[in-house]
Design the sequence.
């Protein structure tokens, strides 16, 4: 059966917007009807024009001027900008997928609460670190609910951290911390991010630490592997670089994320995981609509 694709608008023409555009283009359920930013000279705008995508330099105004141009809106701008965009898009009745760490809408990590997210008008894709680690923290707490503290150290290549990422460092760490606590139920969490300037560029690594006594290690290893396998279905480059390991009262898990190379290099797994999660949500929205 031939289906008409759901039309999507993308606000923000930086690296994350471009990676998202290429993922939407190869989707069987989605199409990009407007790619809009502010800088007419941006690489994103130029590339989108080259591949035949309609573009605008009027940012959200392009959607305001033509409300029927799209049904889904991806916002890849910044946390502060999304706080302005969200009420406007709500009035327009759009299904909004926020890829900034704004925490304006309902947090969504597809492997955990995809169905719940579809019932919200505005969903927030948390952060790359939150997408990578919150599901593992939840799995760990289901086995050991007595854990009091979990810490995440996310290391990404400085080359994959654009101006948007750098402008949102504070929001990133706070939103990631909030997501770990929210999804896992751990009383206290902390999130750190390291921009590594190494050459060649490193892939994204997320290391989770948990203070614990007498862990059920075999059960943890099995559960974590199951969760990782589910994430890998929509983030193919998601890999357990270090399975759960226990030493001196501390449990350690490390995840590596390699990008799919849709638009960005493979080392940009930090952007790939959040764009992949966002497309997963949008495609499920489209499936539910057809059903």
Sequence:
């Amino acid at each position: 059966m031939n289906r008409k694709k759901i039309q999507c608008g993308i606000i923000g023409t930086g690296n994350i917007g471009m990676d998202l555009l290429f993922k939407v283009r190869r989707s069987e359920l989605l199409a990009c009807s407007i790619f809009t930013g502010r800088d007419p000279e941006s690489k994103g705008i130029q590339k989108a024009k080259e591949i035949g995508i309609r573009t605008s330099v009027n940012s959200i105004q392009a959607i305001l001027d033509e409300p029927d141009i799209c049904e889904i809106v991806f916002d890849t701008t910044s946390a502060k900008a999304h706080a302005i965009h969200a009420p406007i898009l709500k009035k327009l009745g759009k299904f909004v997928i926020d890829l900034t760490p704004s925490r304006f809408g309902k947090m969504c990590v597809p492997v955990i609460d995809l169905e719940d997210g579809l019932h919200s008008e505005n969903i927030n894709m948390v952060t790359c670190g939150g997408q990578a680690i919150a599901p593992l923290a939840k799995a760990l707490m289901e086995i050991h609910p007595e854990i009091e503290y979990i810490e995440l150290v996310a290391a990404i290549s400085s080359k994959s951290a654009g101006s948007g990422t750098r402008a949102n460092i504070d929001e990133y760490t706070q939103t990631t911390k909030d997501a770990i606590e929210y999804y896992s139920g751990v009383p206290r969490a902390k999130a750190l991010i390291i921009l590594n300037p190494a050459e060649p560029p490193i892939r994204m690594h997320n290391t989770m630490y948990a203070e614990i006594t007498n862990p059920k290690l075999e059960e943890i290893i099995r559960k974590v592997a199951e969760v990782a396998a589910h994430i890998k279905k929509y983030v193919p480059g998601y890999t357990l670089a270090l399975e759960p390991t226990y030493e001196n009262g501390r449990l350690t898990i490390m995840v590596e994320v390699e990008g799919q190379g849709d638009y960005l290099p493979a080392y940009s797994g930090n952007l790939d995981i959040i764009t992949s999660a966002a497309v997963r949500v949008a495609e499920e929205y489209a499936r539910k609509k057809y059903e």
Notes: The chain has two domains: 6-126+271-290, 128-266. The chain has a mean pLDDT of 95.
